[in-house]
Amino acid sequence: MADEETYSRREFLRKSGYAAGGLVGGGLIASLITKQVMEEDPKTNPSDPNLSNDHFNDAFMFFTNRDDFRVLASSCERIFPDDENGPGAIRLGVPFYIDHQLAGPWGNNTKEYMLGPFYKGKRTQGYQSRLNRGEIFRQGIQKIKVMSQMEFQKSFQELEADQQDNILSAFAQNKVNMSGTSSAEFFELMRAATIEGVYADPMYGGNRNMEGWKMKDFPGAQMAYIRQIQSDQFIEMKPQSLHNMLNK
Amino acid sequence: MPKTLPKVDVVTVGVGWTGGILAAELARDGMKVVGLERGKERTTADYLHGHDELRYALRYKLMQDVSKETITFRNNRGQRALPMRQLGSFLLGENLGGAGVHWNGQTYRFFPYDFEIKSLTEKKYGKEKIKKDYLVQDWGITYNEMEPYYDQFEKACGISGEENPMAGKRSNPYPTPPMKSTPILEKFKKATKQLGYQPYQIPSANLSEPYMNQYDQQINACQYCAFCERFGCEYGAKSDPVVTVIPAAKKTGNYEIRYHSNVTEVLYDGEKVTGVKYVDIYSGEEYIQPAEVVALTSYVMNNVKFLLMSNIGEPYNPNTGRGVVGRSYCYQILPGATGFYDEEQFNSFMGAGALGTSINDFYGDNFDHSDLDFIHGGVISITQTGKRPIANNPTPPDTPRWGKEFKRNSIKYYTRTLSVGSQGASLPHRENYLDLDPTYKDAYGLPLLRMTYNFTDQDKKLHRYITKKTAEISERMGASKTVPHPELKDYSIVPYQTTHNTGGAIMGEDPNTSVVNSYLQHWDADNLFVVGASAFPHNGGVNPTDTVGALAYRAAEGIKMYRKNGELLV
């Protein structure tokens, strides 16, 4: 832990200019005050030690049956497996992350242009599916299940790792027929969502205990690196989540 | 029936950098200015809990909602243009401050060569050097004429920088000293010096120290928190329209911003514009805002779209080469090389949007093009903008894209890669242009803008040449393995490249080959000013914002002159 020093509030005020002469702009002062208020606001900090530690968020918002969810979980685990580097997708909570994302704006394509007419288009023209991401995942998971039964007469989650990889490779290489989308498109979405679940702030349900960040030596939502930016040593810092920031 | 409101002196369509600068300059001059902003208000306090890669960088929190309006795209006229259904190649801004809020803050000037590119190239290399079908032309203004406007914009921002030995002459030093140097930057400096080049610290709108601008607005000092591009700055330490110019305009009492106001048409009587029509997107009510002067101050795409929808000026026709609106759309290319380091680990997750070091030895005509079959060049840089973990999973070639080996390598090399990158200049081509799409519509029933664009032969040759230079630098820096960017193929709307789109309503000396004059005043409507990178006749090989800001100051001066004499200024 080289050169990790506490960045005092006094210093922050001085260096950033918050406390410099002729301070203007109510927004700046307000933002500083907001932070102080947040830190001291008991309402944002559940302090009752008798409250349960259950992961209430580990439940389905998008999926409707466990089998589909297990297929997703096993697929994510092959994309980002548990190994000597650290936890894999399942231990990191990635399947729940994806479930929650699929239930929200991302899964419903609320910020995408979804008006027709729809045409296949060239590769360079990007996403042209009439399906939203939720529909693509639903269909993709059904296809994985069907293929698993066809090839190995077993559920996908019961297959050996290399058998699972064979099936996922077929999707990645666009060899599986899908309707209104392609298997490569589905696989790329699942791959991207898995990586997001590994490294997005833990508030989203993945990156449990910030273990994704720890593997990568990424310290999360730090306020400043002004004290470390010139260091010629690599700096390992205790990671900080947005929740930590709010409730320090 | 839309409701007609009382007339004002100036209405601006959009409130980002250009709308904010015009407002500050004109409201202070006593004019009544209304800014129509289709997004919402936002302040520095909105970014305090914003160190969230997923929400901002991946889900585009600060960007345009393309479910309501996007563009269509095709590589060439033979293809059917299809909607850009999600953001990718470039990130359009939305809400107060526009894309000026989520920028990195790299604030370079264009070089003297850019403004007189045609004359200077032909003078040195002959008429044949600029190939057929490239619509390269001078800007109708020289660097020396632009200098005072650059100076004003850089003072509004408080740019932190140091003298660049190869750049155009400055009337004043940078307002604040350069940002800190770091071991990563020093590595690049050392290597480029050894190769005989002249590195300098990137001019930065992330300020090295607190600064008060000419409007008495304070910009704070950068804390190197590494959340700049795609994020707003919670410190008020990245100069953006909201902390530099908009409050200056508001203070005068002459400026009103109307939020949630989406302009649908510029009203034009064939000689002058009389105002704009807009819809309040909350109430659904339509209004007409009459004005003495209308300024289009939205992003490149919509500046062009408004002209086309309102039938102002002749649309460009690629068959005949006639017409001007939509002509000369340009972008940039990104030559570069990634260095993988097996022995060293870098603090590459720390940084700031404009923290970096550059050389201009391969910019413009700073190197001899006699034996080269392209013109211009690009800046070559190393930046330390702060690598975030979702988007940065570098792996050496031949690593699978998923699975155990992917996991191992993407974790290992996350802090063990340094990239040397470039922005290559982009020259206008006869086949690259913007017009209205015949099929697809936005949420207001108006046609989407259609982009027809592909990389050119010039782009491919320049890319190859500069990529080689970046790879040499990477090797000299001591990378265990250097992987140059692959050769350019067809332009794709999918992966993020750069939000440096330009052209479509370009400036120039001749109404037959430009939309606006050098004050950004429309040739066919002397009370209409079209302000922004839409006016660039080509795109240079550095970030465009300094030039956008400078042109806005030029346009503000033009509007003041126009309000006195009421005619074409050139």
TrEMBL record, chain A:
Superkingdom to which the source organism belongs: Bacteria
Q: What is this protein called?
A: Dehydrogenase
Which species does the entry assign this protein to? Answer: Pontibacillus marinus BH030004 = DSM 16465
TrEMBL record, chain B:
Originating organism: Pontibacillus marinus BH030004 = DSM 16465
Which taxonomic lineage does the organism of this UniProt entry have? Bacteria, Bacillati, Bacillota, Bacilli, Bacillales
Listed name of the protein: GMC family oxidoreductase
SUPFAM superfamilies linked: FAD-linked reductases, C-terminal domain, FAD/NAD(P)-binding domain
Q: Give the GO molecular function terms.
A: oxidoreductase activity, acting on CH-OH group of donors
Q: Where is the Glucose-methanol-choline oxidoreductase C-terminal domain?
A: 428-552
Q: Does the keyword Oxidoreductase apply?
A: yes
Q: Which InterPro entries match?
A: FAD/NAD-bd_sf, GMC_OxRtase_C
A Pfam family that the UniProt record links to this protein = GMC_oxred_C
Supply the alphabetized keyword list.
Answer: FAD, Flavoprotein, Oxidoreductase
